[in-house]
Specification:
Chain B: Keywords: Calcium, Coiled coil, Disulfide bond, Endoplasmic reticulum, Signal. Chain B: One of its GO terms (molecular function) is calcium ion binding. Chain B: This is Glucosidase 2 subunit beta. Chain B: InterPro entries: EF-hand-dom_pair, EF_Hand_1_Ca_BS, EF_hand_dom, Gtb1-like, LDL_receptor-like_sf, Man6P_isomerase_rcpt-bd_dom_sf, MRH_dom, PRKCSH. The complex is a heterodimer of chains A (922) and B (534). Among the domains of chain A are: 285 residues, glycosyl hydrolase (family 31) (Immunoglobulin-like); 122 residues, Immunoglobulin-like, CATH 2.60.40.1180. Chain A is built from 16 helices and 49 strands. Chain A is globular, with a radius of gyration of 28 Å. Chain B has 534 residues and is α+β, with helices and mostly antiparallel strands. Helices cover 47% and strands 15% of the residues of chain B. In chain B, helix 2 crosses helix 5. Chain B is elongated. Classes of the chains: A alpha+beta (922), B alpha+beta (534). Chains A and B meet through loops of A and helix 1 and strand 13 of B.
Chain lengths: 922, 534
């Protein structure tokens, strides 16, 4: 077995032609703070709580914490937040200078909840609702209880580490007793080791004027079998053990050229939220820190022991320690939100309650996006758009990568290639389509460029360590980077989107913010030096992972104001952080045309989804390289069921528009895209419900089946909302795929599933081998749900606005089903003023009824009910009776009856009807 | 109350769709109207799979799998809508474009229930279209005239070439005969020459052997002397320590002879006795000793003007070289390299220029000046004369043969159904954009040259026609792209009154697209038919 896999690995490494250059990126050992913090080993933590200093407030407490090794005093603040959430912060009591606190990630001030505090000589108990925290004084430890069950503890592995700010060559304070002296000395030696006061990486020198400033803390998830979260990594959904097994997971926004799969290396975005899940409960930790962060995982299945752990799961014996996550950040403070679930969806909601959910996008944004680096000119753009019509393939958005600009100067056009950009946008709009173009954060240093001159004159650029405008190298050549942390600069940047400033723009073009990690070709690790300086005097070190998000704040503001706050902005970003979902969709960056990358797109988007970012997708076809045709159409079929649906390709690849392939391939791709469009009403409803509830759209199986241990590690299939189960075909030459049907109770209790193509019924727990032809995407509707679709596929999503709805009613074992439909103008913010319809459908006892969930909301629509397909009933009715709000009864026909389904033909009722029902007549 | 009214409006509309304005015929090609005649209030789908109520025709619900019941609505995903477009050409569009808010039919018939305010502009568009078609027809007609002229010219050219070819074939055959004769004479005389020279050759060999023997003796003597010199402690062995005192062996010029350096010269031995020294060490030492005493000169810059840069680099490499073994090899190979490089250069020239007469360049190695007797001298001169005569005859033949081959190649090219492209053969056309001048030499090559200066890049060589209608040419196998394929150009050809390049694009990296116009492509429908038969 081992030999076989060795050979397999060899073969893989020979075939694999693209590869990241790992030398460009640091290992934990090369980042001195990571090395220091990771090696912290204490028998017992030197931190102790001084219970005498406890101050109790209605929603929070403050208490001092002392590091017994050096006498440093810290302030611990702990507060209760509505929805099974606690927040605590640890900062120096009186630091030499303030330490950075992240303020731009949360959507606003959390809703605090009253606490009850009791203190003894050795601990403090803080109760909040049904939950409590016990703060142990000596040594310091936090235990979080959800409904009296110990769920999470902090510092129980004594990994807490807090490097107080100091002056260089500060003398160590006298040790308090003999016993601790050795340990103490060891620690101070640590802090004088190379890398503490300056650090080199390759040819780059980091002056580190503030010296060591790391913070670290360990969290143990007592009820968990697996951990997941902390995107972005090209790795499995379930986190692997990294302690004693290579580097920790790294969170540091980086532009990684030809990134590698199955890797804990950092990628474009960083969301420091980790969840622990077990059959009893789910909980999570949001480590709010924007500096470079490493997360060392223990007690979960590592690559080596994944088989063993599955065996032990099955055997029900968990001999391993409870899984733990050790967070290590280079600077800032310890700032932690603890979400206690208890269900997976509760935990996800609690996280988005803090950081926000994604705004409902415009309808066009959830259609199909056609991108390439680059469509060469105006004619090229129009030709490609026209070809989609010629081949009757829906498409909503044409994209322009960097080559549309005049020499990579953003907010300008190359007029040779695009003599009339406004006309081009208008031509697209006339056909129901949109344009999205790119605006990157690097600004060309060109004295003929207004943006550069303004930034230079007004001091808008990020400064280097000497206070001069920092100059790096990116697409335009020599470039500088606006400091988006400064509100004045953000406003200046946002103003550039206004039509009065940028005339070759329209109210409704999408914007693509790429390279915003930021990518600096000649910088350390292809990004900005950490000793660069930002607004407020903060070092880049403190804020790095937030930089891209701050650009998005500006872009979002600009797009809002560009359309007088009427239209919902559409933005795509590569860099991301906690809260990015409030501004933009995220794609998984520069992937490759390889089957492995197609597979990776699912765990990557699942991890982003549970970390708040539902609007996620991967480049269809793979960015680098030329996909073989089978890979390309399988990728389209997969992408059609992932929230952000865009094809994109590198400039050196061959064109891959569907009609450039033989007819049979083109038709498969066309079918996949059209399938996407037929589900747009469901997608739109799911996006609305995401905004409303904060729940992810794309979900791991465990969100719906938390008791099924066999489902925890599955990341080649996923759910959309709680309705569809998707298992895309992602293997070359596959004629069968294994689909896992999960268990409701951790045993044999199954849901009923219906194949969306032929309504074949599956009612079992376990793996079923499903035959697939070239067209087949195994997708199953869960019994008990009602899904809205539109079967008339138009040129673009927005042209389907008035088209009638088809409802697919799939019944559960009680012959019941429920579903929702959301309708509004598909583009404006009028829905926030109650201009919408949010409808609930219910099927009970042979009656399908409809009512408005929000009765105060209203919207005038032409949408009507074209057909209802009822799936899973044993008997076919003879007819059906429609009763609308005027209580008139209309007879409707039953047609197309098969063993599993029948159709109610053309009820014709308007979906504006506040209530109606259809009764089946037997 | 408001909502039910809206509902009744919709239901009202739907019934109107069935009852008023002959909507049942909506979207139907009038010539197929009888297929939709009412037969007993029933309608059978064209595929025969289903019979539905006649009122279900165009009722905005798709009943027939083949979409035949909904020609006038968007209900069927696979349906087709026919717009009559009076005043203009009729049009068939996918059903999905009915009432989608975009005016597809100029008679506005596709948007009968939509937010789009389409106006009927068929008359306007139709007449504009007819004018355009007329202009197009005019263009093709005029262009076709020119094409026919080109065709005549092309046919004439071909005919002339055929005639010329026949002439050439005759001349060449004669030249071939003459060459054969001259070759025979040359062979005969050369045999005589060879015999005569044999005598001298043997004598030369003798002398050479003698010289070699002397050299060997000298060399042994020199080696023995050197051995004696290096064997400073006179123990009958030369060892490492002894060699380390000889600065001549400091090959890396770091000021000392390292143990490795010394060992190298001892052929990896710690010490060698005389015989070992002679066979193993001496051959290694000799070049260095010669170099040291100035007898052996490695090639210098002056000797290789063509490769100055490279040579400089190599020299530098030598100086930094730590391994004496490698260095010695390099030294020995250097002279060979020079020759090889020359050869390569020659080959390249040959490739480019074809059959130039290289063999008859002045001999590079001058024969040693030997005094022959009169008879031998006479034979040599006779042989030289015979060689010259053969060369002249051979050149004559080859020139004729080359011309013949060129004509044959031209005749083999496909210049269109009526040779209309033949006059364009070899003609070049330029197109400039912001950065480049693009060139197309018909049936030859396509190139690109940066306007900022810099060398021309070959985008492709004539490969052939694509498709079977003489509308597309491929120029393939151009210069290779970094990290990509060889460049290529697809040329799309339109009819026009003159020949020129209209646009150049690069839809894929290194795959170019030229759009050109030429009267040679102005085929009228009759010529197309001719062509189709081909």
């Amino acid at each position: 077995m081992r030999q076989f896999s060795l050979i397999f690995l060899l073969v893989i490494s020979v075939i694999h032609t693209l590869a990241v250059d790992k030398n460009n990126f640091k290992t934990c050992d090369q980042a001195s703070f990571c090395k220091r913090s990771r090696s912290v080993q204490h028998e017992r933590s030197p931190f102790e709580v001084n219970i005498d200093t406890l101050i109790v407030n209605p929603n929070y407490i403050n208490v001092d914490l002392t590091n017994k090794h050096n006498g440093q005093i810290f302030d611990l603040k702990l507060e209760g937040i509505k929805g099974n959430t606690f927040h605590f912060e640890i900062d120096e009591k009186s630091p030499l200078k303030p330490r950075y606190r992240v303020v731009d990630a949360l959507k606003g001030e959390p809703t605090y909840e009253a606490i009850k505090v009791t203190a003894t000589g050795s601990d403090i108990t803080v109760k909040c609702g049904e939950n409590k925290v016990i703060i142990y004084a000596t040594p310091f430890k936090l235990e979080f209880y959800q409904n009296d069950v110990l769920t999470i503890s902090a510092n129980s592995k004594a990994k807490m580490h807090f490097e107080h700010l100091r002056r260089k060559q500060e003398a160590p304070p006298p040790p308090e007793n003999e016993n601790e002296q050795n340990e103490n000395e060891a620690q101070d030696q640590n802090q004088d080791e190379p890398g503490t006061w300056e650090e080199n990486f390759k040819s780059h020198h980091d002056i580190k004027p503030n010296g060591p400033s790391a913070v670290a803390l360990d969290f143990t998830f007592h009820q968990a079998n697996i951990l997941f979260g902390i995107p972005e990594h090209a790795d499995s959904f379930a986190l692997k053990t990294t302690v004693g097994n290579g580097d920790p997971y790294r969170l540091y926004n980086l532009d990684v050229f030809e990134y590698e799969l199955n890797s804990r290396m950092a990628l474009y975005g960083s969301i420091p939220v980790v969840y622990g899940h077990g059959h009893k409960s789910t909980s999570g930790i949001y480590w709010q820190n924007a500096a470079e962060t490493w997360v060392d995982i223990a007690g979960t299945a590592s690559e080596q022991n994944v088989m063993e752990s599955i065996v032990s799961f099955v055997a029900g014996s968990r001999q391993q320690d409870a899984p733990s996550a050790h967070f290590i950040s280079e600077s800032g403070i310890i700032d932690v939100f603890v979400v206690l679930g208890p269900s997976p969806n509760d935990a996800f909601k609690q996280y988005t309650a803090l950081t926000g959910s994604g705004n409902l996008p415009q309808m066009f944004a959830i259609g199909y996006h056609q991108c390439r680096w680059n469509y060469n000119d105006q004619q090229d753009v129009m030709q490609v758009a026209t070809k989609f019509d010629e081949h009757d393939i829906p498409m909503d958005t044409m994209w322009l990568d960097i080559e549309y600009t005049d020499s990579k100067k953003y907010f300008t056009w190359d007029h040779q290639k695009f003599p009339n950009a406004v006309e081009m946008m208008k031509n697209l709009t006339n056909m129901g389509r949109h344009l999205t173009f790119i605006i990157d954060p690097h600004i060309k240093r060109d004295s003929g460029y207004f943006f550069h001159n303004d930034c230079t004159d007004r001091g808008y650029y990020i400064k280097n360590k000497d206070g001069k405008d920092y100059e790096g190298w990116c697409w335009p050549g020599s470039a500088s980077y606006p400091d988006f942390f400064d509100p004045e600069i953000r406003k200046y940047y946002a103003d550039q989107y206004l039509l009065e400033n940028f005339k070759e723009n329209s109210r409704d073009t999408g914007i693509w913010n790429d390279m915003n990690e930021p990518s600096v070709f000649n910088g350390p690790e292809i990004t900005m030096p950490k000793d660069n300086l930002h607004y407020g005097g903060w070092e880049h070190r403190d804020v790095h992972n937030l930089y891209g998000q701050m650009q998005l704040v500006g872009t979002f503001d600009g797009l809002l104001r560009r359309a007088e706050n009427e239209l919902r902005p559409f933005i795509l970003t590569r860099a991301h952080f906690s809260g990015t979902q409030r501004y933009a969709a995220v794609w998984t960056g520069d992937n490759a045309a390889e089957w492995g990358h197609l597979e990776a797109s699912i765990p990557m988007c699942l991890s982003l989804s549970v970390a708040g970012i539902s609007f996620c997708g991967a480049d269809i076809g793979g960015f680098f390289g030329n996909p073989e045709t089978e890979l390309l159409y399988r990728w389209y079929q997969t992408g059609a069921f992932i929230p952000f649906f865009r094809a994109h390709a590198h400039i050196d690849t061959k064109r891959r528009e569907p009609w450039l392939y033989p007819d049979d391939v083109k038709l498969i791709i066309r079918d996949a895209i059209r399938k996407r469009y037929s589900f747009l009403p469901l997608w739109y409803t799911m996006f609305y419900e995401h905004e409303r509830s904060g729940l992810p759209i794309m979900r791991p199986l465990l969100s719906q089946y938390p008791l099924d241990k066999n489902a925890y590690n599955i990341d080649n299939q996923f759910m959309l909302s709680d309705k569809l189960l998707i298992r895309p075909v992602m293997q070359k030459g596959a004629s069968k795929v294994d689909v896992y049907f999960p268990s409701r109770n951790g045993d044999k209790q199954a849901d009923i599933w219906y194949d969306i193509d032929d309504y074949r019924k599956i009612e079992r727990v376990g793996v079923e081998s499903v035959t697939v032809n070239t067209y087949k995407v195994p997708v199953y509707q869960r019994g008990g749900t009602i899904i809205p679709r539109k079967m008339r596929i138009r040129r673009s999503a927005i042209l389907m606005e008035n088209d009638p709805i088809t409802l697919i009613v799939a019944v559960d074992s009680d012959k019941r089903a429920k579903g929702t439909l959301y309708i509004d103008d598909e583009k404006s913010f009028a829905y926030r003023q109650g201009k919408y319809l949010y409808i609930e459908f219910e099927f009970i006892d042979g009656v399908l009824s409809s009512q408005l969930i929000d009765e105060t909301a209203s919207y005038t629509t032409k949408v009507w009910l074209e057909r209802v397909i009822i799936v899973g009933l044993d008997k076919v009715p003879s007819s059906a009776t429609l009763r609308a709000s005027n209580n008139q009864a209309t007879q409707v026909d039953i047609i197309d009856a098969s063993k599993t389904a029948f159709t109610i033909r053309k009820p014709g009722v308007s979906l504006m009807e506040p209530t109606w029902s259809i009764t089946l007549n037997y | 109350m408001r909502l039910p009214i809206c509902l009744s409006i919709i239901i009202g509309f739907l019934s109107c769709a069935v009852l008023c304005d002959k909507p049942i015929l909506r979207g139907i090609d009038p010539s197929r109207a009888q297929l939709y005649a009412n037969k007993n209030d029933k309608f059978t789908c064209f595929d025969g799979k289903k019979t539905i109520k006649y009122t279900q025709l165009n009722d905005d619900y798709c009943d027939c799998e083949d979409a035949s019941d909904e020609p006038g609505t968007s209900a069927c995903t696979n349906g087709r809508f026919h717009c009559v477009n009076p005043g203009h050409k009729s049009l068939v569009i996918p059903s999905s474009r009915v009432n989608d808010g975009i005016c597809d039919c100029c008679d506005a018939s596709d948007e009968y229930f939509s937010r789009a305010n389409c106006i009927n502009n068929c008359i306007e568009l139709g007449s504009a279209d007819r004018i355009r078609e007329k202009q197009m027809a005019e263009l093709v007609k005029n262009g076709n005239q020119i094409r026919l002229e080109l065709s005549q010219k092309g046919k004439k050219q071909k005919e002339e070439q055929r005639l010329r070819m026949a002439d050439l074939e005759k001349s060449r055959d004669q030249a071939d005969k003459l060459r054969e004769e001259k070759r025979q004479i040359k062979i005969d005389v050369e045999n005589l020459e060879s015999d005569a020279l044999d005598v001298y050759r043997k004598a030369e060999d003798e002398i050479r052997k003698q010289r070699e023997q002397e050299e060997a003796v000298n060399s042994r003597q020199e080696a023995e002397e050197t051995f004696a010199k290096y064997d400073s402690n006179k123990d009958g062995k030369v060892d490492i320590i002894e060699l380390q005192t000889r600065v001549v062996f400091d090959r890396n010029r770091n000021g000392e002879v390292e143990i490795e350096e010394a060992r190298y010269f001892l052929d990896d031995n710690d010490a060698l006795e005389l015989e070992g020294f002679l066979t193993l060490a001496w051959p290694k030492m000799k070049p260095f000793l010669m170099l040291d005493s100035g007898l052996f000169k490695p090639p210098t810059r002056g000797d290789q003007p063509a490769d100055e840069g490279e040579d400089g680099e190599e020299q530098e490499a030598h100086e930094n070289n730590d391994d004496p073994a490698e260095e010695a090899e390099l030294l020995n190979e250097e002279t060979e390299n020079v020759d090889e490089q020359h050869d390569e250069n020659n080959e390249e020239e040959e490739d480019e220029e074809g059959h130039d007469d290289h063999d008859h360049e002045p001999e590079q190695q001058q024969p040693p000046p030997v005094q022959y007797d009169d008879e031998t001298q006479r034979i040599i001169e006779e042989a030289n004369e015979a060689r010259n005569q053969y060369d002249v005859a051979d050149r004559e033949f080859r020139e004729l043969d080359t011309e013949l081959n060129n004509i044959r190649k031209v005749l083999e090219k496909d210049f269109g159904p009526e040779e209309e492209f033949a006059p364009l053969n070899g003609e070049c056309f330029n197109f400039e954009d912001r950065e480049y001048v693009y060139k197309l030499c018909m049936f030859d090559k396509a190139t690109q040259q940066p306007k900022s200066g810099g060398s021309e890049t070959r985008l492709g060589n004539w490969d052939g026609w694509r498709g079977n209608d003489y509308r597309q040419m491929l120029y393939a196998n151009g210069a290779g792209c970094w990290n990509g394929p060889a460049r290529s150009v697809m040329v799309d050809i339109d009819c026009g009154l003159d020949t020129r390049i209209l646009s150049v694009t690069e839809p894929n990296r290194c795959e170019y697209n030229y759009r050109i116009q030429t009267p040679a492509a102005c085929f009228t429908s009759s010529t197309n038919e001719v062509h189709d038969e081909l």
